[in-house]
Amino acid sequence: MFAIIVGIVGAYVALRTLVPLGMPLWCKVLVALVIFLLAQNHLLTKLAYGNMFSLELPRAVVIAVNLGFGAIIITAAFYALLDIFMLLRSLVIWQWRPLAPGWSFAALALGIAFSSLGVVNAIRQPAQKDIAFDIEGLPAGFDGYSIVHLTDLHLSRLFQRPFTETLVARVNALDPDIILISGDLIDGYLDARRDDVAPLAALSARDGVYVSPGNHEYYFDYDTWWAVYQDLGMRPLANAHARIERAGGTLVVAGLTDLAATRFGFPAPDIRRALDGAPQNAPVILLNHQPIQARMMAAAGVDLHLSGHTHGGMVVGLASLIAQFNEGFISGHYAVDDMHLYVSNGTALWPGFALRLGVPSELTRITLRARGDTIPRPAEGDAIGG
Description:
Elements: H1 2-18, H2 25-39, H3 41-49, H4 59-93, H5 101-123, E1 127-135, E2 146-150, H6 161-173, E3 178-182, H7 190-197, E4 209-212, H8 215-219, H9 222-231, E5 235-236, E6 240-246, E7 249-255, H10 271-274, E8 284-287, H11 294-299, E9 304-307, H12 319-323, E10 332-336, E11 339-343, E12 362-370
Parallel strand pairs: 1-12, 2-3, 3-4, 4-5, 7-8, 8-9, 9-11
Antiparallel strand pairs: 2-12, 6-7, 10-11
Helix pairs in contact: 1-2, 1-4, 4-5
């Protein structure tokens, strides 16, 4: 269905762009073919590599494909607005009056420009974002506790070893108490990604590095990657928890499997299993890649729920669409009953649609405060920090 939809969009852009141009037929056919291939790049990737989530071509080519695909989508939106305006105007004056060709050329130029800007924003290092949450019953020893939250790294031909090395250096410079990663670290199989993930072994925090799986781990041989994460020094949490002890107090860090797990024969997310044996009165921080189950997690007694998956909507205006598939949780902080839900925009994003316009990626540093300190509880839906 996705291939059909983008195929229609590509055909629309090709017709609107090429019909007015006075160029030889063979040139129009050649340009139309390029537009078709760009529009169908996900299907072609699946046919070539057996998996639409791993485009194993040189980085420059991956960037060019994303720029072209983004230009098609954005230009189609501009063309649609022009066509709607032209139709409405013709109905009002009761006379068909097409717009001057210059409008279409302007729409195409804007589509390419916005796509270029979106790709540049997508592939850069994430901006640092500092936020703080007050936690009910937080032991005194954890007041001021520093967490670095990473999610959706999507290490790939687009986000390679240099990206990982720089990110690791930045994280370590923050000197966090703990590093928590909520899934989608990779796009690709181990043989293709071995060098790109290797720098993650240098991640350092006083209480360690913990990781839960995202849906993309299951697309690329979950068992292999789960073992690799452990070899890299991370402690995997899949329907499991760990206890962090400090000054006589305990903090529970739990992690769930992803909702995609059952499609590949792995256990579904199970919060009861994850918290089995955890101290009753200890605050719980949960790593759960997708935010869609947040209300269930609040009912289970989670205090802070960390997610990603949505990439923040990637482009301003897409949030309302993506919200329909995520129970309204897209980006930033939400108060869900007595639980904090924080949905990160992602440290990077899927290289199949590497476009960010008005929705920056983020490296998130979280500070925990005992409730009653000077930092207030954020209002529902508010994103805090900067």
